[in-house]
Specification:
alpha+beta; Fumarylacetoacetate hydrolase, domain 2; five-stranded mixed β-sheet; 8 helices; about 35% strand
Length: about 300
């Protein structure tokens, strides 16, 4: 059984969690009628009562207002209700070279021979720091293209939300914007290629599931320019080269993982080498079970 949890901006109130019910989002509310403002608050309530996240959600349904999802899936406007990133992660980490297509692309871009071939099959995966909450955007907000990059592309990824023990709370979609020319020039430039303003998008919801779903999703990415599709690709997460448990174990090794940390699990969708994102491009990343994450691209200086 699955549940889709969204986070919504409500004018005059602030963030509020909701549950997708058909075409609507039903806001959660406490017994006193107050909003539930974050996934962490919801988890804490579930832990306090010993009920778990599902029963906590059920106990809070029926009290909050309902909004049509389509009306929330709009550009951010503080005067209107809209979708926020479903989680405000204290840290975002990312795994690299976890799909065969990613290995091929990294080999093509780099001037340093051998390193990506080796990490694909090495015991230790590539896991790197990606972003903080302030560098993340939610649905329909602009993702960044570095002003000093000529070759930036989106990386469509399955993302997992972790609790303080490193257990998977749920799944969402991530866009790991990456300056391939900067990383390709020298692998030591990876932080500059990956970490900058609006470098990561998350959403549109968190999928909570009784059973693991990471091997059963089809991710797709579509990029439009001037209303015309200029790229489309898809990949099955069954092609993920490493188990998520191994990636999470590596992240936790000698490292404190704050609750609501997000781990991006790598991409198997890479646009052709001649493609580079431009300001105004519309990037859409989707999976049937989670929804569609839409973001326009904008130059950041």
């Amino acid at each position: 059984m699955t549940m889709r949890i969204s986070r919504v901006w409500i004018p005059g109130q602030g963030p509020s969690l909701g549950v997708c019910e058909g075409a609507d989002v039903r806001l959660l509310a406490t017994a006193a009628g107050g909003p539930v403002d974050s996934l962490e608050t919801l988890l804490a309530e579930g832990a306090r009562t010993g009920a778990g996240i599902r029963d906590a959600v059920r106990s809070m349904l029926g009290r909050g207002e309902a909004y049509p999802y389509r009306d929330l899936d709009r550009a951010p406007d503080s005067g209107r209700a809209y979708l926020l990133a479903p989680v405000a992660p204290p840290e975002v980490w990312a795994a690299g070279v976890t799909y065969e297509r990613s290995r091929e692309a990294r080999l093509a871009e780099t001037t340093t021979a051998g390193i990506y071939d080796k990490v694909y099959d090495a015991e230790r995966p590539e896991v790197f720091f990606k972003a903080t909450a302030s560098r993340c955007v939610g649905p329909n907000a602009a993702v960044g293209v570095r002003a000093d990059s000529r070759w930036t592309v989106p990386e469509a990824e399955l993302a997992v939300v972790l609790d303080g023990a490193g257990a998977i709370v749920g799944y969402t979609l991530g866009n790991d914007m990456s300056a391939r020319d900067i990383e390709g020039e020298n692998p030591l430039y990876l932080p500059q290629a990956k970490i900058y303003r609006a470098c990561c998008a998350l959403g549109p919801v968190v999928l909570v599931s009784d059973t693991p779903v990471e091997r059963g999703l089809t991710l797709w990415c579509r990029i439009s320019r001037g209303g015309r599709e200029v790229f489309r690709g898809e990949v099955s997460t069954a092609r993920l080269h490493r188990p998520l448990a191994d990636l999470i174990a590596c992240l936790k090794r000698s490292n404190d993982v704050p609750a609501m940390t997000v781990l991006l699990t790598g991409t198997g969708i890479v646009p052709p080498d001649e493609f580079a994102c431009e300001a105004g491009d519309l990037i859409e990343i989707g999976a049937d079970e989670i929804g569609v994450l839409r973001n326009p691209a904008a130059r950041v200086v």
